Amino acid sequence: MKTLNGLLLAVVMTAAPAFQTIAAENSKDVYISIDSDALKFSQKTFKSRVQEISTQDGISILKIDEDALPWLSMLMHKNFNRCGGFMVHDDEADAMNLLHSQDGAQLFAKNNTFADYTINQEELVKPMVEQVKAENILANITKLSSFKNRYYKGEFGKQSAAYIKEMWSAIVKNRTDATVEYFPHSQWDQPSIILTLKGKSDDVIVLGGHQDSINGSFGGSSATAPGADDNASGISTITEVVRILTDNSYQPQKTIKFMAYAAEEVGLLGSKEISKSFKAANVNVIGVMQLDMTNFQGTKDLDIVMMTDYTNVQQNNFVGSIIDKYVPGIKWGFDKCGYGCSDHASWNAQGYPASMPFEAKMDDMNHNIHTAKDTLSVSGGNASHAAKFAKMALAYIVELDR
Ligand SMILES: [Zn+2]
Question: 293 alpha carbon to ligand 1 midpoint, in Å?
Fold first, then answer.
């Protein structure tokens, strides 16, 4: 493993200086937030093309030219094995706002109580949880990971998005309260997809995951990136939840939105646009759950690991109680990403309560992600781990909804 990377890195490092000259001519600066342990690496790689603006609590704000982002994304995947790896901000103020995450929207999102976390819907939840079928999740992971890639730019990423929209539309075709829509993004090809089950109230519950995949080494829209775990598993887990709620003609009290975000791998771009538009429209989102990588049990004595950063304390504990009640025998715990490692961070940045239940501790996660080797075989060719997340997510929605 090391060797290959080393070799590739050598190629990139030798190419990087060329990049420094090429980019200088016509690129614009953008602001990103990144884990400070990647700061030195970025400065060494991009020299004058990157400038440290500020660092606090392990997070660094950098000014970097836009053309460097695909390189950085690739190097973050290669050298830090990070999903996403950094967050792109609109401007310096937006980036600094994240740094001061101990005040304003994030603090509010982290510590405030946004909903009634009573668990009292056993009669409704138990029979539905028992209907979760790992083979359904497996079938959808198999299909989604059969696309050459689901990259946010290019044909394959558009085709995979169309497939998800069709699949979700087929499941809810007989529901009069359901809509399945694209959320287009002007800066790239792949649209996000939002399935809405309209409830009696406009309070919103979001269950989402990113649909895009990436292969860390170059090739972008023509690279082989099956992304079976990252993140066909999350989308397939969400799909199973939609199927069961529909098969049981579940009538939501609140409005439930299922989301397949585009462009997570290159800076959480899709979820950022969506969460910002919800904030701007004053949508009252009472809870967000992110499912990103649910099908590799890397930590032997733990099944579900909730990230503590960029998430809501009360909702995390609520999810823990949900697991204890409705997914008996499953062990759960906590860990920290250290950076905005997935789309929950976009919602958190807008002051909304989010949770990110993950497949393993960060150090034990599936290290085949962002390569052509992120296939189902790594998870033993089954979806039994992801099925645990489907039960948890189903119970989370119904209990939060009532
Ligand atoms: Zn991911």
Answer: 6
